[in-house]
Amino acid sequence: xxxxxxxxxxxxxxxxxxxxxxxxxxxxxxxxxxxxxxxxxxxxxxxxxxxxxxxxxxxxxxxxxxxxxxxxxxxxxxxxxxxxxxxxxxxxxxxxxxxxxxxxxxxxxxxxxxxxxxxxxxxxxxxxxxxxxxxxxxxxxxxxxxxxxxxxxxxxxxxxxxxxxxxxxxxxxxxxxxxxxxxxxxxxxxxxxxxxxxxxxxxxxxxxxxxxxxxxxxxxxxxxxxxxxxxxxxxxxxxxxxxxxxxxxxxxxxxxxxxxxxxxxxxxxxxxxxxxxxxxxxxxxxxxxxxxxxx
Length: 295
Hints:
By secondary structure, the protein is an alpha/beta fold. It has eleven helices and ten strands. The strands form two sheets. The protein has an eight-stranded mixed beta sheet, with helices on both faces. It has a two-stranded antiparallel ribbon with strand order 1-2. The longest helix is centred in the first third of the chain and has 29 residues.
């Protein structure tokens, strides 16, 4: 079996389209299709059902995909460890994280790690609604919900708290808030419900029953900026809100606790670069634990 043909098959299986895979591989579309046909002939079985909208795996294709990913993982580990022993930490590590954690915590700290290792490239990307570690959409992922499926190396990264905040300028203009009744008629800065990808975001429903006026933003960063600008009241991550002295924490009885889960794939977890970034994230969060769980 030709590994180059298997590598092409692997990319097509992940991309779901021959055209997209050919772009990723920087190969001609016809070349990719021809290599897939040659591989199928050599194995005497169909690996992919080809449709106008894309490709789907057959049962034989799924079997080969599992074996190919395992083999790819061995190659990645060997290459990283051999190169790492001689050159230090090198290569690319993609970290997927919720935008609040990514923007207000990881961006600064992972930047420091990247600057420390000249051969290391770290990609910090927003966590989408769905992602696949096995398809190398991320090497390390941080999620709001505990993953329940797949071959994963999983650990609880930390609990974190959220509280109600308003800017001092807002309180000076609209009046203080000392009780729940003071929330009536206020503008609630919150997320867009249909874009919420996790049930862990349901804390907003508590205030939604008290505040009928809403300004809905598609990201944690946008919510933070709207509250900082004095436009309304919002539920914000405590570790992020503490960065801004113009914000005031309100109604301390309204405190919400959620969790972050850290995952990586066993095929790449032991590579030197992934292991180091994983260790660094864990240590950084542990050091800042008091910021994540505000009393």
